[in-house]
Amino acid sequence: MRFYQGVRNLILSLLRKILFLWVRTDVSGNTLEALGLDPDKPVCYVLQYRSLSSRLVLEQEVRRAKLPGSHDTLPVKDGPGHAFFFLYKRITGLFRGRRQKLVATDEFNELVRFGLEHPEQEVQVVPVAMLWGRAPDKERSLVKLLLSDNWSVAGRLQKFLIILLHGRNTYVQFGQPLSLQETIDEYRDNEAKANRKLARLLRTYFRRVRQAVLGPDLSHRRTLVDGLIRSQAVKESIQKTAATDKVPQHKVRRRAYKYADEIAANMSVVAIRVLERLLSRLWNRIYDGVDVHNIEIAREAAQDNAVVYVPCHRSHVDYLLLSYVLYRNGLMPPHIAAGINLNMPIVGPILRRGGAFFMRRSFRDNPLYATVFNEYMHVIFTRGYSVEYFVEGGRSRTGRMLQPRAGMLAMTVRSFLRDHRKPIVFVPVYIGYEKVMEGRSYLGELRGKKKQKESVLGLAKTARKLRHSFGKVSVNFGEPLHLADVLDEDHPNWRTETYSEDYRPYWLPQVVNDLAGRVASGINAAVAVNPIGLTATTLLGTERMAMDEGQLIRLMDQYANLLRAYPYADTVTLPDGSGRDWLAYCENMGLVIRQPQKLGDIIALEGRNAILMTYYRNNIQHLFALPALIASLFETRPSLRREKIVFLATAAYPYLQSELFLHYPREEIETVIQHWIDVLIEQGLLHQLENDRIGRPEEGTDEMLRVRILARFIIQTLERYHLVLGILRKYGSGTLTAEELEEQSTLLAERMSILFGLNAPEFFDKTLFRNFIANMQENGVLEANEQGLLVYHEVLEQVAEDARLVLSVEKQQAIQQITMMDA
């Protein structure tokens, strides 16, 4: 027996070595830490289908990871003779042809029987999913059905061809171990039910992994487009459009087909694999690495849900980068909503085969197009495809989150209301660049230069930049947001209502706005802090954007410690190293200059870099918003009562929350502010005085410098608010419309920016003023009368006086002069 077993193991070892001359694997979850195995309990691996090649791959991977061997004898009496088993085997008869029946293997049944007979003997059952070629298939392509792993069970010849074609792209995922005894405990007297329960749990795991990695079965694109035109909603829209435009229905139907063909993605197995290889080379060329954090959030969300990835939008690279990261981590690339401007020659077809579907910027005046697009989105969601779109609409030119455009979110909610059998989960994604590729063009656009239209020629010009290094990129996944949970909170009766294709319930806008805010806050709560952002934040907080090298290093370390003392969210990541390392890195990237001095070198920002660095500061400004707000209250006062600090910070919070998408709920903000006061005292930035007063450090001390610079992280935002209040008080109540106030505020902010040499382009951003004015109306500080004129009450006068606490005397006088107010 031992001789036979030794010969068998020798043969298997030889076959394994031969197989891995060709096969290459990408493995997930194969560490002792990830599995959380108990070393004192036996381990048994389980594969889904009987297959010699899968058995060989399993043994190779457990050896590489130094896990308990799969060919070791399982130390349980009467159980399987080795430490793995297959869940199913195929049964075929002589006259059954291709028909196959899957039944549980004898080893599986024996293990369950052993567990029932020996309740004191535990076994850790580890499911291992294995996919040969990670890509979806198309149901009408015979060649691809033969040559790609898919949802069907491959025969021997098909499996051989799959390994031959896709063996170098094999994905292996180890799942969390199941406790044999805990699983079968409730069925001690019923072996059949115990078998079914364990098999169901294992089958569910394999199904979830397969769906997350392969995605749902894809229909042929032509079939999908034809199906859209035959849907009831599109048929009715065709009839209405034909009647309204007085055009024959067949011509309108042809137009609808053209719209559907223009929109629909054409995801291709070959394109995804080619893009993955090309992008691997591209990232290695232009970036020093792609850091991925919290990918397990995306993996878990993708197993049982239709996932909507909602990243921030900083660069055109975002589209490719997220798909690349997901694919490299064993997840199906999403269908991506792309602007029609990207559907240009050469580039458009490639993006479409990579999963992009194209949408026009606006289709409010084209109901037929809107209906076709809505139906396409509904098909995507109900079939369980993952989707990616940018809630900001366009790329941020300032580095901040833009105000969400809720169109795609509204379509998603309406689709879910029509059919909510497939849960939808939003996964916020923060994509952070140390040096954004379009940085220089953003500067031009902020100075009034016309935005360049995307073109093949423009793409060729961009390709010249690939010779430069753009540092590292971080991709952080935030906490998932379940759409059903949002609806339950905002409109608990949503499940009991009936929805047609074009029904828009009265409560939908409020739910969508709430969802948009949550998504944007979730993105900001997953921010990656990098050396560039910390350096930019600190230097831009100085008066002359220059500082002694040693002092700058100490300040960066101290501000990083401030973030560690009260973490903004668990999904936020901080850079490794210290201030000295970060400064050296930033200097190497060419973003700061060094001026040698005998008393110590000076580090400074100059020219275009000074403005460009505001972009990277704005990436992380929200992390410092509350401590900076508290620090700013001591600009003109040496001490304040704690109660006054909490009151003023709480009053300002709704406006900061709306502008910076802070994630603290308003009902909890007083507690958060109290906590931040305590942290600032612990860090030596504030002092506890008698009578519950809080004091700032003494002038001239290092601590006071830290407080003053910290306050400047947010001071320009507060100055903008004060500017609006100053204009309102100048003109008086009931004299300006919201549009006039916005225009006046923008012009005066631009003037103030020139007078004080402010380098932040967002200081006179019209949309920020519009948002602030709208928030004052929402909070009841302003009201619009019947003529549309803004009316305010005495409370605004008090708010304006309190706001003066954060402004230096120089800034107060400047705003008074600019608005021609009396002192």
Automatic annotation (TrEMBL):
Pfam families, A to Z: Acyltransferase, GPAT_C
Record membrane topology: Peripheral membrane protein
Broad class of where this protein is predominantly found: membrane
InterPro entries: GPAT/DHAPAT (IPR022284), GPAT/DHAPAT_C (IPR045520), GPAT/DHAPAT_LPLAT (IPR041728), GPAT_PlsB (IPR028354), Plipid/glycerol_acylTrfase (IPR002123)
Pathway annotation: Phospholipid metabolism; CDP-diacylglycerol biosynthesis; CDP-diacylglycerol from sn-glycerol 3-phosphate: step 1/3; Lipid metabolism
GO CC annotation: plasma membrane
EC class: transferase
Domain Phospholipid/glycerol acyltransferase as annotated: residue spans: 307-434
Entry's Gene Ontology molecular function annotations: glycerol-3-phosphate O-acyltransferase activity
GO BP terms: CDP-diacylglycerol biosynthetic process; fatty acid metabolic process
E.C. code: 2.3.1.15
Reactions catalysed, as given in the entry: sn-glycerol 3-phosphate + an acyl-CoA = a 1-acyl-sn-glycero-3-phosphate + CoA
Localization, UniProt: Cell membrane
Motif (HXXXXD motif): 312-317
Keywords: Acyltransferase, Cell membrane, Lipid biosynthesis, Lipid metabolism, Membrane, Phospholipid biosynthesis, Phospholipid metabolism, Transferase
Domain comment in the entry: The HXXXXD motif is essential for acyltransferase activity and may constitute the binding site for the phosphate moiety of the glycerol-3-phosphate.
Family according to the record: Belongs to the GPAT/DAPAT family.
HAMAP family: Glyc3P_acyltrans
Protein name from the UniProt record: Glycerol-3-phosphate acyltransferase
Biological classification of the source: Bacteria, Pseudomonadati, Pseudomonadota, Gammaproteobacteria, Pseudomonadales
